[in-house]
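Help!! Second protein's tokens look totally different from the first
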Amino acid sequence: MSNKAQAMAEFGVHARRGRASGDAYFRALTQSAEDLGRHRQAKADHPLETDGSRAILRQLLQWYYFEKERQAANRLEMAMDCDFYDNLQW
């Protein structure tokens, strides 16, 4: 064994020949995608992931966004009044 090979073995360094530069990145992406798939499957068994729960969430979000849009003009006017009171009109 050459001196260079001995030094590499001593420090736990191994040559990485015959691999493309993006192999490790692709392998990590594939692994994370598989983990995400397993997580989604486990998550599907949760009681809050049912169709009824999703319908309730959809209704609540619909009400929230409706009220947010309805109150936007009044909230803007209140913020401008507050700024005017604090002499920030200029």
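Here's the second one for comparison:
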Amino acid sequence: MYSAIFSPDGRNILSGGEDRIVRVWDVASAEEVHPSACTSVAGIRAGLQP
């Protein structure tokens, strides 16, 4: 994993790694919520800002 950020509500973590895929994780269950076509955590960071 190269980068990770919490969603504004703290319920999810978005992570990005060597495979260049952004993954969305549920904090409570530690399970992946759904795969993402986005390939940059930095690219979606602006969308998570309140």
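Reply: Different proteins will give different token patterns, so don't panic. The helical segments are 41-48.
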